Amino acid sequence: MTVSVTVSVQLCGNQNQQTVDQAFIDSGIVKDLGIKLPSDGLNLIEVKYSSASVSCGTELKSLQTAEKPMIKYPTKSNTLYTFMMLDLDEPSPSLPTFRSVIHWLVINVKRDDLQSGFNIYSYLIPVPTPNMGAHRYVFMVFEQPKEFAIGSNAMIAVGSKFNVSEWASQNKVFGPVAGNYFLGKNP
Q1: Using CA atoms, how far apart are residues 43 and 27, in angstroms rounded to an integer?
Q2: What predicted TM-score, i.e. pTM, was given to this entire model?
Q3: Residue 96: is the preceding peptide bond cis (ω within 30°)?
Q4: Which residues make Cβ contacts (< 8 Å) with residue 74, sequence separation at least 6?
Q5: What domains can be seen in the chain, in order of their start residue?
Q6: How far is CA 71 from the centre of its chain?
Q7: Residue 144 to residue 72: CA distance in whole angstroms
Q8: Is the pLDDT confidence value at 35 over 80?
């Protein structure tokens, strides 16, 4: 008897050809956010700005991120998602006293169509504190257990010092199931 097993590994597309999981671990994202990675691995969120694509640690300048990017990620049918973008390093990577700052938060997303969801925080252009080092801007997707009611706890997210793991636990979301990040510099 022959058994066939297919393993799907999500690569970042960066020059190291890391898995998304490994990139999140190596960059300190997992530790700094206190998140747990799914046992079957983190999927890659495709993030495309008009002048650049994001690939687990791509360095971008503020001008390159001035417009909202195109977002795409693997989805399941009949599943709602929460999408978020965070700055982990405000005001500086060495002293991130405002970790994490929400730059974009959308709930009740159908598939990967962010316009189908409800914007809690509209896209905020990443502008890291000048000359303080590169900030990690992290994109993550969580699976929702149900549709969140407008005005629910899912919406009571502060703009800075946002605790992702606490929010995920309170709202019983699964994940993150997908992620990506870039390093933002100014200048």
Answers
A1: 16
A2: 0.90
A3: no
A4: 43, 178
A5: 20-185 (3.90.280.10)
A6: 11
A7: 17
A8: yes
d(CA 85, CA 92): 17
- Is 65 in contact with 87 (CB distance < 8 Å)? no
Query: Which residues are 72's β-sheet partners?
Result: 46
pLDDT at position 11, please?
Answer: 62
Query: Which residues, 6+ apart, have CB-to-CB distance to 165 below 8 Å?
Result: 33, 34, 35
pLDDT digits (tens, 9 = 90+) for 162-179: 999 999 999 999 999 999
**Exposure string (b/e) for 21-40, b if CB count within 10 Å is 16 or more?**
bbbbeebebbebbebebeee
> Which residues of 69-172 form beta strands (DSSP E)?
70-72, 80-87, 101-110, 118-121, 135-143
Give the CA count within 13 Å in the CB-facing half-sphere of 98: 16
Eight-state DSSP code of residue 19: B
Residue with tokens 């405002």: 98
Cα 66 to chain centroid, rounded: 18
Show the tokens assigned to 88. 């982990």
pLDDT in tens, 40-93: 889 999 999 999 999 999 999 989 999 999 999 999 999 999 999 999 998 889
Rounded Cα distance between 67 and 154, Å, is 26
* The predicted structure's pLDDT at residue 178: 96
